[in-house]
Design brief:
This protein has 21 helices and 7 strands. By secondary structure, the chain is mostly helical.
Length: about 500
């Protein structure tokens, strides 16, 4: 199941592979790089100090004394350097595949090799070291960073050539070139991630095609702003290296995306997407039941893909994707769009792992989903439920406005703003076709309409609001007129 890694310089491989219990073998958990004299944890994506191996196994991987033994024995045979003796890789060897990659900054002052991950640090670096306030336009530059060690021994290195960058000071053309270098490094990272995924999971021709499509096109449809872009292009595929269900989620959504854009081969792609999703769900459930700091980022990323998948299959399977009006007269449940229901319950499922997710590598996704999962007691009293939902909707409008100017609008903050926060009782009100509830739902369509162009949204805001306009009693119609106009255009309901 796991790719065998070569074990340079030791004859211990077979012996310890035989001792392999559940989980990773010592040589799989720990990747030895004799060229640098370091031991990289393939799960944590950083190098472990020789003196801290036992502690790492105990505190980070929670291995008991007995289970630690083969790992300790394996590492005893390796030549490891003290952290302060470890040389940084040459630019040509960047990125080191087993280490995580961060975005950061490089100081452009002559012969200053300062690298850091935050802009704030760079702003402090200039007055402290170069005795003047630095200019973000010319004094430092975006770069990609890696470090072997964390904590006290953290020392960043990068792939960019120092001289080349120094020459770019005040020269816009060369700065543009340096940016190209950064972009090509992104591409390099992408290729190396795709390669690792392909090798590790032995992808067949169709899956390899899906993976390429993910990196070329599909990931972009999951983001609408710069900040979450890196999450989908670097972080999520990186997490997928350790969490197969996440790779399957990526491939499932990509398959539906391809089905959507290639009607001729729709069946082939839909079928493959379905296979991946079915294989992923049981593993995802297991992960949710045992959330740890190692799988929680993968859990949240998969949850997002799950929303895309459920929206997209809902479109695929039904000619009337928003079943707000159901032909079956007594089945009130179907009045509620299933995807709306899903978004709400899907998020509840995650609430126990939320605090871990917020501090993890995919945290930006969690923030984008800004939610409040207070499980207040809900009453049957419809006015209160309505007021609550109305206040939340007002907040959502304010939030969406704020997000437009700050983190940017994404499918996630839009889908997540309102449905996940309203009470269960509100869904009952929709089922009863309560005018207040329908009016609010119509206004939610205005928010939803802001991402109406996404392939997996598929015209839902328009269909939903038109359905509402049809079932809402005449005397209430004036209350939704503004919303209808905004979603359907000046022609209003007659336009559909
Ligand atoms: Zn580790
Ligand atoms: Zn400097």
């Amino acid at each position: 199941m796991f790719r065998q890694k070569s074990l340079e310089g030791t004859g211990n491989t077979k012996r310890f592979q035989a001792q392999k219990e559940k989980g990773l073998a010592p040589s799989e958990l720990f990747h030895h790089r004799p060229d640098y004299g370091v031991l990289i944890c393939t799960t944590c994506h950083y190098a472990i100090q020789p003196g801290a191996i036992r502690r790492h196994l105990k505190d980070i991987h929670h291995l008991h004394h007995e289970k630690r033994r083969p790992f300790i024995a394996y590492t005893k045979g390796l030549k490891l350097k003290r952290p302060e003796e470890v040389q940084s890789p040459l630019p040509g060897d960047f990125p080191v595949p087993q280490l995580s990659v961060e975005k950061g900054w490089r100081c452009l002052a002559p012969s200053c090799n300062y690298l850091c991950a935050s802009n704030k640090r760079m702003e402090n670096h200039w007055p402290a070291v170069h005795a003047k306030k630095g200019d973000p336009e010319t004094d430092w530059h975006f770069t990609l960073l890696q470090t072997f060690f964390r904590g006290r021994m953290l020392r960043y290195f990068t792939g960019q050539n120092q001289r080349q960058l120094q020459n770019t000071r005040d020269k816009p053309v060369q700065i543009a070139k340096a940016q190209e270098v950064a972009v090509s490094q992104d591409k390099q990272l992408e290729i190396s991630l795709a390669k690792s995924l392909q090798e590790k999971y032995h992808l067949d021709a169709l899956d390899s095609q899906l993976l390429r499509h993910y990196f070329d096109f599909s990931y972009k449809t999951f983001v609408t702003n710069k900040k979450t872009e890196s999450v989908w292009i670097d972080v999520v595929p990186g997490l997928a290296c350790d969490n197969k269900f996440l790779l399957q989620g990526m491939l499932a959504c990509t398959a539906l995306h391809m089905a959507h854009s290639n009607p001729v081969e729709r069946e082939k792609y839909t079928l493959r997407g379905c296979c991946h999703q079915e294989a992923a769900i049981p593993e995802f459930r297991k992960a949710i039941e045992n959330p740890t700091e190692y799988n929680c980022d993968a859990i949240i990323a998969f949850a997002y893909l799950l929303v895309v998948y459920s929206l997209a299959t809902d479109l695929e399977q039904s000619s009337n994707p928003l079943l707000i009006i159901d032909a079956r007269p007594f089945n009130t449940q179907h009045i509620i769009p299933p995807w709306l229901h899903f978004i709400r319950t899907g998020c509840y499922m995650l609430k126990d792992v939320w605090h871990r997710i917020e501090s993890g590598r995919a945290s930006i996704l969690a923030y984008a989903w800004e939610r409040n999962l207070d499980e207040d007691a809900w009453s049957e009293e419809s006015t209160r439920v309505y007021r609550h939902a109305a206040n939340l909707l007002a907040e959502s409008f304010a939030y969406v406005d704020r997000a437009k100017n700050t983190i940017g609008l994404t499918a996630w903050n839009i889908l997540g703003t309102w449905p996940v926060r309203i009470e269960q009782g509100f869904f009952a009100l929709i089922s009863e076709k309560h005018p207040g509830a329908l009016i609010l739902l119509a206004h939610y369509c205005v928010i939803l309409n802001q991402i109406g162009d996404c392939w997996y949204i598929g015209g839902r805001p328009a269909i939903l609001i038109a359905s509402i306009a049809r079932i809402l009693d005449k005397r209430w119609r004036p209350y939704i007129q503004g919303a209808v106009k905004e979603v359907l255009g000046p022609g209003g309901i007659e336009a559909v």
